[in-house]
Amino acid sequence: MSRLGQLVVGRIPLGEPNTINYQVNAASGIQSISLTGQEAGPPSETFRALAEDLVAMLGSDIPVTFSQKSNHDGLYRVSDVGAPITEFAGHAYGFTWNLTLQRIGANNAIDIESRFTDMVRTNAFALSGTRWHSPAIVAYGYDAPVSGSLMRAVEGEPIDIIRVYLGIPVGRHPHWGTTALDLRRGRVRFLLNGIERTGIGTRIPTYGGWSLTNGIVRISPSLTGGDFLLESWDGIDQAWDPQEMEITAGGSGSDFVSVTVLQNDFEAATIRILRDLGPGRVLVDLTIRRGSRVVEGFVQSTASNTIQVKTLSAVTTANNAASGYIVATGNTALGNRFTSGSPIAFTGSLTGSILKTVTTQFPFYAGHVIGGGAPVAGDSATDLRDQYIGTPASSDQAVKR
Q: From CA 286, how far away is CA 298, in angstroms rounded?
């Protein structure tokens, strides 16, 4: 690493170079900076991930921060990138990287616009849902009418709460301000073997070793016989509340064999896990959004089956399937309650299971009611259901203020 400090490009930390080539295109007027540096060390997944993820950023709009040249902090578009690699097998690994970054704007000149779809999830319960949105931690100047808001604790953040705005009207796309540094706070992160990854081209040689989190809810492969571990961050106890989950199609319970990253943005990320039925397959898409209390799932099977989403061990639940959800009747050791549901008509249970018969698809959500029988306003089981139903697909983009 450079003695001058650290350069962070999007999610990627690099040694901060001594020289910045600052330039302006005479024809277009576009300002850009060119940077070159080196990373080297013993062969490891960390160094290989750096090289792969740098190349994956081409064309992305990202925050860039310097520890020693903070006057260049801002939002940039990656217009050119390279990372020639040198590896001495078993001894050393290194690459000389180069980046050309088109300047979108400085912190004071840029808003983030969150572009929403105007639809809610079609559902069988005549629910209009709650349109909600969560900007990055330390966002300011949130420009959209809302009906209310709530705060959710986030694990591992210097400022450990994120605001969730409720009741955003259809047709409104919020604008909000933040710094390049704070834009990263509260983001959704896909990690492989403990390393945060960028883009969707990540090599994932086996099913294990991954996790997906926004600091509020987290999913990862199960280590005790289930399909994945669902965890919710309890800010009072400063601990993750776990729930092992299982997904079956036609009674199948074989292990999942691969994972693919479909989306990997600060505001949302989606992975796809695959189970081999030999012949046939089951695909499960799992999505986490910034500020969300639940994981969103979508199960697809090649053959029409009974698809079931359940807790690995029975959890006593109130069966409110007629209203689109189930919820535990008692608290966990940390004082929270498991909940799940679906926008389509399904069969609920008193034991932590929801299922759909004779189907090839089953959308669902799962999470915890933090506070159990006494959650804060906006975080009850029905609130989480309504937020799931009303979740608008969204993407963030930088715009001139």
A: 7
